[in-house]
Protein 1
Amino acid sequence: MENLKPFPLFRLPRIVIEEVIKTMTPFEIINFSMTSLKIKYLTKCFLRTNRNSQYVLQVNTNEEPKVSFRGSEQMYFELKITSDKRKDGMRKYKECMFNEKIDTFWIYSEDVIDKWTNLVKTVIEVFKFIEHIVIFDVDKFPTKNKAIVDFIKSQTPSIECCDFYGVAETDEDVEYFLNNLIVTKFVGFNLKLSDGFKFPQYNYLDVCCLDPGNWVIFDQLLHLQASRLLIHGSPLTNEELNSFLILWMTSKCHQNLSYLLININDPQSLDTIFNLPHERINPDVERVGRLPNNDTIPLRGEIDIKRNDGMTGTINFGWRLDKMLLKMVVSRIE
């Protein structure tokens, strides 16, 4: 059998090469771009000028560190780094709810964090990302947490979304993350921090979700700037919730708030919270509210409170296991 000769790829017209790249999956693009610096440059140029090649990047530091990205469709491509040799080269495809499809590929490495950082570098260099999401598990690589943060900062000093997971009270690692990376849209805490934890960023967020929020005392609540604020497990008293609502009504705090969900620690004394001007609404009556972003929303609420600029906070109540929740939607009633 005769030896196969290398295919002269760069003798093809550029438009032909670009058509070939269009047919590739992200897995194939990554492998293709790593064959030579020239091919990496060509691939990068094509992807960064192609309107249909904009992806959302998600990196995850769980037990098998992951790099995943999603295009305009609900198709997720995941690359997982594993220390299990048996998984090397394994591929799994699954279809989920809401038409989501996930294609996962495993890569073996003795040093999973080193391999993961190299992979993150490659995909950031080659692909064009419109959003960066970090899932940070503080328990999996505790001795490398700060190095991981430093690495992410070297690739992108600001990210749109982050989620924290873990079981250890690791205030220092979470603070280091938030002191070194600017988060612009979403912060989610799914881990317990010490009661003395202080949120180190005061920039405005779209969503802040804290579960548990055991460290959210009154002063911390006033500094959490978000359009949608969801807090479970806070130690706030009914008197403090009353003070917060009064400050909101007088436009002295959280003027950008559009939705609030927060636990009530004493459901038996709701009158303490509503020791302020308010109106009780028939819950069977549906009204229309116009949100700050100008969208409309149907409203059914038990209590209305008015802000001094005419905005209305429509409040109702719910339960999460044995904990009562206060929910408030901010709108202009039409």
Protein 2
Amino acid sequence: MQITGFNHLALVCRDMAETVDFYTRILGMPLVKTVALPDGGQHFFFDCGGAGTLAFFWWPEVPPPAPGIASVAHFPMDPKTAVGSMNHVAFSVPEEKLDEYRTALEAAGVPTFPVVLNHDDSRQGFSPDMHDKVFVRSVYFTDPNGIMMELAASTKAFGPDDIRHEARGPATLIERN
């Protein structure tokens, strides 16, 4: 296989008109394709840069949201979601625009996580201050569907020294006990 990049991520919304307004007006992502589905639903695509799109399905009848299972219940206190769920979507933005974009989200009535998070390799995984070990700075918020979003500004390129941990799963937990 030769993966050449991100094509699209498909999510489900509760109201396509509300979703179009949020992604075009607030996030500035152009609506680039609309599809009417034979079952009465819709499938719309938004340009999120880098030749990738964020797509949404809408159907007249769908199961209700399931926070804490299919979406984050409350970040950062409860960031876990179920196996097979989508935890969040992170969009790349220029670092020098991060504070400006956070302010714009709040001015549009979109609640954001109270601080810009500086992700680093410390035990807790983030720092209140910017320093040379910070690899990404983030602003977190949710869209009208309760989907957690992140504006992420990379501060350095990853290299071989950034792979320092062995992968874990249920088998490794059993072996350690």
Protein 3
Amino acid sequence: MQSEAPTASSRETKVTASLLLATRIVEFALGNDLVLDPQVFAAFHAYLGDPDGEAAAEVAVLVEAGCLSEKGLHEIAVRIAPPDARRRTQTVQQGVADSLAAITEGMDAHAAALDEDERIVGRIEQSLAALPSAKPGPLAGALRAIVSLHRQRLAAQRAAICEFGASLRAEQVRILELRRELEALRTETTLDGLTGLLNRRGLDAHLSAQNGTAFTLLMIDIDHFKSINDRFGHPAGDGIIKSVGAMLRHCVRERDFVARMGGEEFAVILPATGEGAADIVAARIRASVAARRFVKRHTGEPIGSVTVSIGGACGDGAVGGDVLMERADQALYASKRGGRDRVTFFADNAWNMAS
């Protein structure tokens, strides 16, 4: 037996439930002072949306112990979800939007059907009006009564559609606001406020996405940055950090990722890039920064030139991002120990870091 299509009422109920669940997730995360990134959203969606599920039990342990944290929720999300958790989170949001669109389409179809019904009723009324007025007869009277009743029902249905349409538009505004809020939270948690580059959280996410692929990681540090702050003040230092970040972005490809690790340290992910090509990029970065002459923005006081030390490490997909970061960091310190303003790539057992 063929199942009946879901009614507009049932679809509306499902959409409202999805919106309420999303709202509960946002409120629960904010109430626990947690950053609502996609993995946290996925863990809370399982916890609040499927209380009897395995993931819900794991999250409940953290809740009852009073030790909710982004790290703990990330670990749960990784265990219960495939690597494309971000895509699944977006799919949840898109599903609600698609449901609203489907309801709107159904409502438009229903309104079109009402228009056709009204045209049919109009033709019946014209036929009744053409009957001789002296001999209306019982059949004509009954038809007129039926037409009148049908017009009343059509009017009631149109009023209901208008009311439902207003409610639907309000729900669409709510889901749009929710999407903007989630996107703003995601942006706040992955971007550096000073430079607009990725922050450490954003870098880690992109490093994880490179697992199993060949790429090169560059670690970059502004040389003698403390003396710049001491001589010219922290606002001038912030200006140099912003300028260096902009130069890094300019020196790499659109598909590469640039991050500010914190302080005066940066990182660059070069996907599908070997040491030879990465060395060219690193040399371009070093030369571009060294050629720049900095001045205080408001006073024009010359600051002079600054240099950067760069360490690089290449991976063939067999090592993870954490290992590559450690290697690039070792290469960076080798550049500093070698006199700064230079590029060094990691080589196994190349340096005795303890000496």
